[in-house]
Specification:
157 residues; mainly alpha; 6 helices; 73% helix; globular
């Protein structure tokens, strides 16, 4: 029995309508997620009283924090789809092995962070630790993929 559609081919057709290749799309989606993760760290630091020079206050900074997190999550979904369904876990060299290993943890850390936000019984350091772990994993994934693409393949769409 033949499959109804080839996932790789369908995904490639959709992505290459906007980008030159699937890897270019992944690099730019990951870059957007990293930028939004930096917004997350900055706004979280402001909410915790660490960045007093930032002019946003109260509900505004909380709203920016929540929406930047939602958008960051959405930008990771096409990357996740391509990496998991088309490429899979690979270890041909150290860079790819580190990237694959970090990629296996990213949504687990995300789920933990979301659960920690809702649980008021945890110690005060738990949420910042989860948030920084999440941002660090996104940064590591970006360093081992998008940065490599932009410096070794091409910088463009």
């Amino acid at each position: 029995m033949l499959p109804l559609a080839d996932v790789n081919e369908s995904y490639t057709d959709i992505v290459t309508a906007l980008f030159s290749s699937t890897i270019a799309a992944k690099a730019w989606f990951a870059t957007a997620a990293l930028a939004l993760a930096l917004v997350q760290v900055t706004t979280a630091a402001r909410m915790w009283g660490r960045l007093t020079f930032l002019r946003m206050h109260g509900p505004v900074v909380a709203r920016v924090h929540r929406w930047s997190g939602r958008l960051a999550f959405l930008f990771t979904l096409p990357v996740f789809f391509h990496c998991v369904t088309i490429l899979g876990f690979e270890t041909p060299d150290v860079r790819v092995a580190v990237h694959s290993l970090a990629g296996t943890f990213v949504y687990g850390v995300f789920a933990a962070k979301v659960l920690i936000v809702r649980d008021r019984s945890l110690p005060g350091w738990a949420l910042p630790a989860a948030g920084l772990t999440m941002a660090s994993i996104i940064a590591l994934l970006w360093l081992t993929s998008s940065l490599w693409y932009f410096t070794n393949v091409r910088f463009g769409f």
